[in-house]
Amino acid sequence: MFCCQDLGDAVDRGWFYRGSKHGIEDGRIVNDVDTEYYLRAASTRGYAYVGMNYCPFCGRAISLGLWAAEKKK
Ligand SMILES: [Zn+2]
Fold first, then answer.
1. What is the pTM assigned to this prediction?
2. Would you state the pLDDT for residue 71?
3. Any bridge partners for residue 40, and if so which?
4. Which residues of 25-36 are buried (b: 16+ CB within 10 A; e: fewer)?
5. CA distances (Å), origin 1, targets 7, 18, 19, 26, 72
6. What is the pLDDT, as a whole number, of residue 56?
7. What is the whole-number distance in angstroms between the Cα of residue 43 and the centre of ligand 1?
8. What is the pLDDT of residue 55?
9. Ligand 1 centre and the CA of 33: distance in Å?
10. How far does the centroid of ligand 1 lie from the alpha carbon of residue 30, in Å?
11. How far apart, in whole angstroms, are the C-alpha atoms of residue 1 and residue 19?
12. How many angstroms is it from 25 CA to the middle of ligand 1?
């Protein structure tokens, strides 16, 4: 499911969120990346979700937007 075990573990720990942006109910998204992967950071109110184009561990492209762009090549 995940590009690497490190990201899977990070999601298990709650450091990262994987899923639809509509499923985020305890915080808000702070950038505009078309992805299912978000860094989840404690904020003054709830959490800040930072969308990611690339896995911070293995460096692979993980966002939906990038996958779509890759397929068009
Ligand atoms: Zn990875």
1. 0.86
2. 79
3. 49
4. eebebeeebebb
5. 10, 11, 12, 24, 23
6. 97
7. 25
8. 97
9. 17
10. 22
11. 12
12. 25
- For the chain (73 residues), the mean pLDDT of every run of 10, in chain order, is 95 96 95 95 94 96 84 76
CA 44 to CA 27: how far, in whole Å?
Answer: 10
C-alpha–C-alpha distance, residues 48 and 4, integer Å: 23
Q: Report the pLDDT value the prediction gives residue 65, as an integer from 0 to 100.
A: 84
| Longest pairwise C-alpha distance within the chain | 41
Instruction: Give ∠ CA 55-60-63 in degrees, rounded to 5.
Output: 65
Measured CA to CA, the distance from residue 50 to residue 41 in angstroms comes to 8
- CA-wise closest residue to 17 among 46, 1, 44, 39: 39
Q: How many residues does the chain have?
A: 73
- Rounded to whole angstroms, the Cα distance separating 27 from 57 reads 24
Yes or no: say if 27 and 47 are a contact pair by the CB < 8 Å rule: yes
